[in-house]
Amino acid sequence: MSKTAKKQTPKSGDEPTARVTARPQFHPDNRGMALDLDWVRDVRINLSAVEARAATLPKRRSVKKVWQAAWLLKAISCIDLTTLSGDDTAERVRRLCHKAKTPVRADLIEALGVQSLDLQVAAVCVYHAYVETAVEALAGTGIPVAAVSTGFPAGLSPFAERVAEIRRSVAAGAQEIDIVVTRAHVLGGHWDALYDEVLAFREACGEAHMKTILATGDLSTLRNVGRASLVCMMAGADFIKTSTGKESVNATLPVGLVMARSIRDYHERTGMRVGLKPAGGISKAKAALDWLAMIREELGREWLDPGLFRFGASSLLGDIERQLEHHVSGRYSVDYRHPVA
Ligand SMILES: O=C[C@H](O)COP(=O)(O)O
């Protein structure tokens, strides 16, 4: 631990969990249910209350020093390390997988005294074309490969092709499938069509975990976000995910709050747990801490776990590593010392 860190007196309640663990302790257990349209239509969102609550999160007393490093390590364990670019190559995906296995430089891990954590990210997320490359590069690590699917990002290819795409990625070794929904179903209030679509995708995923991307930036209202969250959970989603990273507005805290509260309501009424994955535009350690604080306050510590919470992010890890270096040495290094892929 750094000299700076030793001087701090951590406040009780600042610790991310009783013990920082790098492997999932909890898992989604959503079996889905019949579409309950009354419940869906009943969803109401108090916009100003949600915005006011979200605005308090970045302003709240930040978690300091000793515990901040622990929270940042927790954040790393929850990252779906992602590359979803038109210029992706097998070499870039292999570099990303290497980073997934060793997300923080060995000297920093040693200085933090957390060698025993065997820290890894939660998953590596790629297009179908790179699933096999990633599976091969991650063999023996236990890190699952997530494939974006169903015509990502717009989700407008023919339905049969979208279903076939899921099956191809599962056959190639993807253990997690990030599907996109048809936004028109949400915008038109066609909840039965949305339910049937997600149910078919769920069936095609088989044993693979299904993360349902709502593309919230396309959904027009927070009420639509709340209703779509609920329908996707009823259809059996393991996770609900905010965004593809390609919409003009991606993961925001108000959207995250609405989704987290939908997960909480669903859990309270059915007893089943669904995970949350904010994705798109989360690139700073401070933003990651705001999300983790929100999750702890809205869903409880159980959800602060890679089994129930993920960040979909391509560059967040670099900034977290930079903050950890600052924690250890008291200095900030330049960005290029923390390449991701
Ligand atoms: O699902 C993950 C996102 O596409 C990543 O978005 P990002 O590149 O803004 O971090």
UniProtKB/TrEMBL annotation:
Pathway: Carbohydrate degradation; 2-deoxy-D-ribose 1-phosphate degradation; D-glyceraldehyde 3-phosphate and acetaldehyde from 2-deoxy-alpha-D-ribose 1-phosphate: step 2/2. GO terms for biological process: carbohydrate catabolic process; deoxyribonucleotide catabolic process. It holds the Pfam family DeoC. Residues 1-29 are annotated as: Disordered. It catalyses: 2-deoxy-D-ribose 5-phosphate = D-glyceraldehyde 3-phosphate + acetaldehyde. Its EC number is 4.1.2.4. GO terms for molecular function: deoxyribose-phosphate aldolase activity. CDD domains: DeoC. Keywords: Lyase, Schiff base. Belongs to the DeoC/FbaB aldolase family. DeoC type 2 subfamily. PANTHER family: DEOXYRIBOSE-PHOSPHATE ALDOLASE (PTHR10889:SF3). This is Deoxyribose-phosphate aldolase. It comes from Salinisphaera hydrothermalis (strain C41B8).
